[in-house]
């Protein structure tokens, strides 16, 4: 397995951002030690992210992902990329192969967005889903898995209530052969 983890926060109604891409509703729910975020960060060796996620991360004062190779999935490459960041217009398999060439030798963080997560799931290359479920109903926004699609089954590995009211949960993705009893 490639050990690709889609780790993200979502609203109770399944949105990862507001319709305009903002995520101000996360301000009171930091990815901190209670969420085991530092341990998660220590376990990954590279990131792949969509263009909108990249653009949101670039608005921060400093590039927060400089310690890893990062691949941005996009049809419109941005200018002035940070060091160790490349772009690609390709399949999830192409993305993983490129990340490996960039030095990502272990776990990969598939970090936003929903459409990219859907592509990895459809390709059978998403292994884990780790979620911070935030106790807010947004009503609309960007879906965690990019909208309507076929049923996809996952197995719960753990769920933990956090002191701030959120839930930290991790699921293992059942690949097609496992669900059909063939593997």
SSE blueprint:
Blueprint: E1 4-11, E2 15-17, H1 37-43, E3 44-50, H2 51-58, E4 70-73, E5 85-88, H3 92-101, E6 107-110, H4 114-122, E7 128-134, E8 142-143, E9 154-161, E10 167-173, H5 176-179
Explain what you see.
This protein has a single domain (4-15, 32-179), classed as 3-Layer(aba) Sandwich (Dihydrofolate Reductase, subunit A). It is an alpha/beta fold and 183 residues long. The chain starts with a strand and ends with a helix. The chain is 21% helix and 30% strand. The protein has an eight-stranded mixed sheet with strand order 5-4-3-6-1-7-10-9. A two-stranded antiparallel ribbon has the order 2-8. The protein is globular, with a radius of gyration of 16 Å. Mean pLDDT is 90; it is low at 178-183.
Structural key phrases:
5 helices, alpha/beta, 8-stranded mixed sheet, 183 residues, Dihydrofolate Reductase, subunit A, two-stranded antiparallel sheet
Short description:
By secondary structure, the protein is α/β, with parallel strands linked by helices. The chain is 21% helix and 30% strand. The strands form two sheets. Strands 5-4-3-6-1-7-10-9 form an eight-stranded mixed beta sheet. Strands 2-8 form a two-stranded antiparallel sheet.
| Count of extended strands | 10
CATH class wording: Alpha Beta
CATH fold name: Dihydrofolate Reductase, subunit A
Query: What count of structural domains?
Result: 1
Order of helices and strands: EEHEHEEHEHEEEEH
Q: Characterize the overall form.
A: globular
| CATH architecture classification name | 3-Layer(aba) Sandwich
Strand content: 25-35%
- Side-by-side strand order of the widest sheet: 5-4-3-6-1-7-10-9
Alpha carbon gap, first and last residue: 13 Å
- Helix content range: 10-25%
Oligomer: single chain
What is the residue-mean pLDDT, rounded to a whole number? 90
Number of helices: 5
- Please give the largest β-sheet: 8 strands, mixed
CATH homologous superfamily heading: Dihydrofolate Reductase, subunit A
SSE class:
alpha/beta
């Amino acid at each position: 397995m490639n050990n690709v983890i889609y780790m993200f926060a979502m609203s109770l109604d399944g949105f990862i951002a507001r319709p305009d891409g903002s995520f101000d509703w996360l301000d009171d729910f930091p990815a901190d030690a209670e969420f085991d975020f530092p341990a998660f960060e220590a376990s990954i060796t590279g990131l792949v992210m969509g263009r909108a996620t990249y653009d949101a991360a670039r608005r921060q004062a400093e590039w927060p992902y400089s310690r890893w190779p990062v691949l941005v999935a996009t049809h419109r490459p941005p200018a002035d990329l940070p060091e160790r960041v490349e772009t690609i217009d390709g399949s999830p398999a192409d993305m993983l192969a490129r990340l490996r060439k960039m030095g990502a030798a272990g776990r990969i963080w598939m970090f936003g967005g929903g459409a990219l997560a859907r592509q990895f799931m459809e390709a059978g290359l998403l292994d884990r889903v780790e979620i911070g479920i935030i106790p807010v109903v947004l009503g609309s926004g960007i879906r965690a898995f990019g909208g309507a699609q076929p049923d996809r089954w996952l197995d719960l590995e753990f769920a933990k209530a956090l002191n701030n009211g959120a839930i930290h949960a991790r699921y293992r993705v059942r690949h097609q052969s496992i669900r059909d009893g063939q593997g």
